[in-house]
Amino acid sequence: KSTVRKENTYVAMKENGLEFPRPQLQLGVDLGEGRFGKVIMARAMNITGSGNWEKVAVKTCRGTATDSEKADLYQELEIMRKIPRHQNVVALYGCCSKTDPLYIILEYVQRGSLLNYLRKCRPSSIMSQSSVGSTMSSISATSSFMQPRAKDLTIFALQIARGMAHLGSCGIIHRDLASRNVLLATDFTCKICDFGLARDIEGVDVYERTSKGPLPIRWMAPEALSDNMYTKKSDVWSYGVLLWEIVTLGATPYPGKSAMEVMRMVLQGDYLQRPLHCKEEMYELMELCWQKETQRPTFADIVQHHEALMDDDY
Ligand code: ACK
After folding, report:
1. d(Cα 216, Cα 176) in Å, to the nearest integer?
2. Could you tell me which of 56, 144, 49 has the C-alpha nearest to residue 95?
3. Over the chain (314 residues), what is each successive 10-residue block's mean pLDDT?
4. Strand ranges (E), 179-268
5. Is residue 193 a contact partner of residue 182, using CB atoms and an 8 Å limit?
6. Cα–ligand 1 centroid distance for 57 (angstroms)
7. Long-range pairs for 113-117 at CB < 8 Å and ≥24 separation?
């Protein structure tokens, strides 16, 4: 069954002009491992039409991957193929899907994950970076990791909401929205990535999880925790938790609590507290995201909300 699926994927990719010749791809160093695969820095000859070698990121399976993990990567590629380009979603450039190992070729996003960036922006982190190394490196460390202003954080939040509204308009739910799955470009554009858990819910509006595997408990909505039910509104819940991560510069949600305790709290209607220094309006938005499913705003509402607040600032 999985062979048929792979062949179908290959045919579809070829038809869409996304199949890329493996010899024109040179793999470099590992960028890191996610829960479902690993990401490698690479260069691809002329993949976007520049006529040159271009820096890309390649997502593939770990050497130890099981057949079901390999099938999950094909599923991830199938989802990405359905998403038209958007500046707040990492772009799919192509793939090598004819033979194993499957390579998903993605836009290379310079600054890595938002979570890592936020943590580097913490005052203690800035201190330790600028106190080591030469004068040069301390200057560059302090200048590139200046503490972001509240407004910068709101711009991150707005961009992520725009990316999520785009996914929603394509009938895709992400199911793993968290700051570790947002990448930051050189110009600080946020790009949503990692579609390992994403599903197409076009026409059904809800996905019921039946398979096993690790889950991002701390970002999950109560209906996902209790009934395995996922909708666009469960992504909105996760977005609320992501706002909390942004405001706390990358703290782990529900600090000091075990996953079991978090589940109990969320199911009892006990959610994250307002972080120190968090603006009233930002916490109000988080609370809206953590309401009952039907009362949560849509991502389009959230985009409007941020845009209105930013207009007020001028
Ligand atoms: O924080 P990071 O450097 O950013 O570590 C993780 C690691 O790979 C595992 O996911 C990085 N990563 C993922 N996708 C990309 C990409 N398209 N461009 C650059 N880095 C990426 C991520």
Report:
1. 7
2. 56
3. 74 87 97 87 96 97 88 94 97 95 97 96 68 39 63 95 98 97 97 95 87 88 96 98 97 97 97 93 97 98 92 66
4. 182-184, 190-192, 199-200, 207-208, 229-230
5. yes
6. 8
7. 113/179, 113/180, 113/181, 113/182, 113/183, 113/184, 114/156, 114/179, 114/180, 114/182, 114/183, 114/184, 114/190, 114/246, 115/178, 115/179, 115/180, 115/182, 115/245, 115/250, 116/250, 117/184
Give the containing element (helix H, strand E) for 299. Answer: helix 299-313
Do residues 230 and 224 make contact, with C-beta atoms less than 8 angstroms apart? yes
ipTM score of complex:
0.98
Supply φ then ψ for residue 165, to 5 degrees. Answer: -60, -40
* Residue with CA at minimum distance from ligand 1 atom 13: 39
Q: Which residue lies with its CA nearest to atom 2 of ligand 1?
A: 112
CA distances from 131 to 117, 123, 127, 142, 300 (A): 19, 12, 6, 10, 44
Contact 219, 241 (CB under 8 A): yes
Angle at 121 between CA 251 and CA 240, to 5 degrees: 40
Structure tokens belonging to residue 290:
């953590």
Confirm if 84 and 170 have CB atoms less than 8 A apart: yes
CB neighbours (10 Å) of residue 50?
A: 9
CA distance 160 to 152: 13
* Among the listed residues 31, 53, 49, the one whose alpha carbon sits nearest the alpha carbon of residue 40: 31
Distance 113 CA to ligand 1 centre (A): 6
pLDDT at 172: 98
Ligand 1 in contact with 106 (CB < 6 A)?
Answer: yes
Q: For residue 205, give the 3-state DSSP assignment.
A: coil
29 — phi, psi (to 5°)?
-80, 155
The pTM of the full predicted model, rounded to 2 decimals, is 0.91
Q: Which residues contact 46 (CB under 8 A, 6 or more apart)?
A: 24, 52, 53, 54
Pocket test for ligand 1, best of 33, 90, 183 (most atoms within 8 A of CB): 183
